[in-house]
Design goal:
Elements (H helix, E strand, L loop, with lengths): L10 H11 L3 E3 L6 E3 L1 H20 L3 E2 L5 E3 H4 L3 H7 L4 E6 L2 E9 L4 H11 L8 E10 L13 E11 L2 H21 L5 E5 L11 E8 L5 E11 L1 H6 L2 E3 L5 E3 L1 E8 L1 H10 L16 E5 L5 H4 L1 H13 L4 E3 L7 H10 L4 E5 L1 H6 L1 E6 L5 E5 L3 H26 L1 E3 L3 H7 L6 E6 L3 H11 L2 E6 L18 E6 L3
Parallel strand pairs: 3-7, 15-16, 15-17, 20-21
Antiparallel strand pairs: 1-2, 4-6, 5-6, 7-8, 8-14, 9-10, 9-22, 10-11, 11-14, 12-13, 17-18, 18-19, 21-23, 22-23
The protein binds one RNA strand of 77 nucleotides through α1, β11, β14, α11 and α12.
RNA sequence: CGGGGCGUAGCGUAGCCUGGUAACGCACCUGCUUUGGGAGCAGGGGAUCGCUGGUUCGAAUCCAGUCGCCCCGACCA
């Protein structure tokens, strides 16, 4: 009945089954474009709310820039064009008129935002500009998967402009740290923060930092990026200001984003053979109440259910009361487990007599009666316990699936199958990086922020190493 | 863009090899009995078999073309 392929049998199929059965998303008639269904969108709304509060708390404001961008703007930054042109969708007609200049549908907004910043920034007093936008973008992908890679996707993109290189770097790292904290505390998804190699950095950036998560099948997922764009875009778009020293200077800009891909990350970090397992902080319903319909339950049981629901909601807890008579309690148990609801409360005549409710945790599947006395407090504690247990579990999984290799043979052996992260010394050359990819399918995910001192030669060429990098097969 | 697979009721499939006018499970509708781990019985509605053309007395089935989707690779949040 569940129709969910076991994770161990075929992880990819399991993932697609969960997305579909839990009604997170569905395929649309447009190739590569998915419909985010209400249950999936509710997760996104929680992600938005929690992230947006963090952006505001760090001084950012929201704005909205247009979907369409004149093609000529894309052409202004050389590396940026090369990186994005192959994935761009074009608009050539409006109604029955052929357009004089083609428009691109934004794959990202650096160029349109850079153009506007050039108008707005005149003086050092105009800086910094700290703007974020919540938007959709389009990238013509050859291969798509729900949430992980779709032709159109939702994200936030922050774009900032600063007076100095130092300030831009501080901003870039501040956001990286913000993302990491968000992923770990809200999504219970541990991430490794670090810097990308030259070949993996954002098209047009001076430096790209990323957070990398490890999925349940041992593959890495880039969960967010923060780019220090240096003066590259400021020069291409003439974002100039007169400085404190009266000279005219180019601004220093950054951009950073996370997308609906995070939902895919949550699914693949916590899910199990029964379906989704959602961290309470982003779960659309943190608690589901299932009344047990016995005898005259509508007068004996239901009022208590409604009272508890009201009390929990008053305490800020998201509650679903499923008093639908069509489905049996057993059906509901299975259904809400499949949908990943963190905590289930069963309330029947026996519970009413005893002054208890029967609880079942999704993460550990532990079941226990809870006293109605102080129930709201108990449930708050339980949700917090589930949230931290999920993070601890995911951390333990990552540690079990992270190894260090000191020789090429060791590295290759470690990359067999679906291993997780492999830490190895690297000389910094793009050649070695490319060879590693060709021979093992593993890519350099990033070089962690607190990377230890290098004491061993490059895993590939045995030359002098510059850093210890984290490698993995990635999504 | 290479390799593979699939289009039959809302969903998942069988039937196709060996042509004879579409079947099963789930879902849905009605009624009754049920309900503490995906309820049971009875009755019922719903598909011109992706599309186009061809072969044939006759095509879901054979042939050709075409469109679309999924999976695995190379490229990417």
């Amino acid at each position: 009945m569940t129709e969910i392929t076991p994770r161990s049998e075929d992880f990819s199929k399991w993932y697609l089954d969960v997305v579909k059965r839990a009604e997170l998303a569905d395929y649309s008639p447009v190739k590569g474009c998915m419909v985010i269904r209400p249950y999936g969108y509710a997760i996104w709304e929680n992600i938005q709310r929690l992230l947006d509060a963090r952006f505001k708390a760090t001084g950012h404001v929201n704005a909205y820039f247009p979907l369409f961008i004149p093609e000529s703007l894309l052409m202004k930054e050389k590396d940026h064009v090369e990186g994005f042109a192959p994935q761009v969708a074009y608009v050539t007609r409006g109604g029955d008129e052929e357009l004089e200049e083609r428009l691109i549908v934004r794959p990202t907004s650096e160029v349109i935002i850079g153009t506007m910043y050039a108008k707005w920034v005149k003086s050092w007093r105009d800086l910094p500009v700290l703007i974020n936008q919540w938007a959709n973008v389009v990238r013509w992908e050859k291969v798509t998967r729900p949430f992980l890679r779709t032709t159109e996707f939702l994200w936030q993109e922050g774009h900032t402009a600063h007076e100095t290189a130092e300030e831009a770097e501080v901003e870039t790292l501040k956001i990286l740290a913000l993302y990491k904290e968000f992923c770990e505390n809200e999504l219970a998804m541990p991430v490794m923060d670090g810097i990308k190699s030259e070949s993996e950095k954002f098209a047009g950036a001076s430096r790209t930092y990323s957070i990398e998560a490890l999925m349940g099948d041992g593959r890495a997922l880039q969960a967010g990026t923060s780019h220090n764009l240096g003066q590259n875009f400021a020069k291409a778009f003439e974002i100039q200001f007169q400085g404190r020293d009266k000279t005219v200077q180019h601004a220093w800009t950054t951009s950073w984003g996370v997308s609906t891909r995070l939902i895919g990350g949550v699914i693949m970090t916590h899910g199990d053979d029964s379906g989704l397992v959602l961290p309470p902080n982003v779960a659309p319903h943190q608690v589901v109440i299932v009344p047990i319909p016995r005898g005259d339950w509508k007068t004996t049981v239901l009022p208590t259910c409604e009272k508890i629901k009201a009390e929990l909601e008053a305490a800020g807890i998201r509650v679903k009361l499923d008093a639908d008579e069509e489905n049996s309690p057993g059906w509901k148990f299975a259904e809400y487990e499949m949908r990943g609801v963190p905590l289930r409360l069963e309330i029947g005549p026996k519970d009413i007599e005893k002054g208890t409710v029967f609880s079942a945790r999704r993460d550990t599947r532990e079941k226990a009666p809870l006293s109605m006395e102080g129930l709201t407090t108990t449930i708050k504690e339980l949700l917090a316990a589930i949230q931290s247990n999920l993070l601890a579990r995911a951390r333990a999984f990552r540690e079990e699936h992270t190894s260090e290799a000191t020789t090429w043979d060791e590295f290759k052996a470690a990359m067999e199958g679906r291993p997780g992260f492999v830490i190895a010394s690297w000389c910094g050359s793009a050649d070695c990086e490319a060879q590693i990819k060709t021979e093992t399918q593993a890519t350099l995910r990033n070089i962690p922020m607190n990377s230890p001192k290098v004491d061993s030669p490059c895993i590939k060429c045995n030359g002098a190493s510059t850093a210890k990098a984290w490698f993995a097969k990635a999504y």
